[in-house]
Amino acid sequence: MTPEELREEFAGRPVAPVAASVDHGVLTVDVEPADWVAAVEFARDGLGCAFFDWLTAVDEQADGIRVVLHVYSTGGRHHLLLRTLLAGTARPPELPSVTSVYRGANWHERETAEMFGVRFDGHPNPLPLLLPDGFEGNPLRKDFVLASRVAKQWPGEVDPGQSVRELGATRQRRRNLPPGVPTPNTWGPHAPSPPEPPP
User: What is the pLDDT of residue 151?
Assistant: First the structure.
């Protein structure tokens, strides 16, 4: 099937897409979170996309977290990208699991849960996958502080071939903060306490 034929198939189904576009020969369909599982089932059963490739997410900051799924039809030789936007400030954002449709989604949903903080309702094994025990935060969210950039010497802080200890305090360049690091004393153990809520 061509991407245009796939789009027509989606348009005639109960799962009404929010938007559909064809880019680089691949159909991308956006659906509501409530239609997520039904759209994934239709991709497998109605469009023949029996090969699950991957599932991940994108942090779109104020808009929310967009979950993206890629599947493929080995018989029809067509690709399909399904997306849904988990809008709002809910922490963590929630989406039904599609492990009952594609068993291969198990690992991908666990990784997405850890890295982006999305909770997949109905997941059979929502245990941590990559991060150490006790790790706080979601490393692929854009509001996650890149603390390692503060702990290590940043390139450009001194001239090439020199270290901070060799120069002493007088010859150091003005310290610039690396990208992704907030202003000092606004995060971590030295951050000011939030104001007390009014009684």
Answer: 57
Contacts of 89 (CB under 8 A, 6+ apart): none
Q: Please report which confidence band the pLDDT of residue 25 belongs to, taking 50, 70 and 90 as the band edges.
A: confident
CATH architecture of the domain covering 3-121? 2-Layer Sandwich (3.30)
Query: Is it the case that residue 176 has pLDDT exceeding 70?
Result: no
Residue, of 152 and 111, whose pLDDT is higher: 111
Q: How far does Cα 141 stand from its chain's mean position?
A: 7
Residue 170 confidence (pLDDT) above 60: no
Domain boundaries, the chain: 3-121, 145-180
Residue 106 CA to residue 120 CA, distance in Å, equals 10
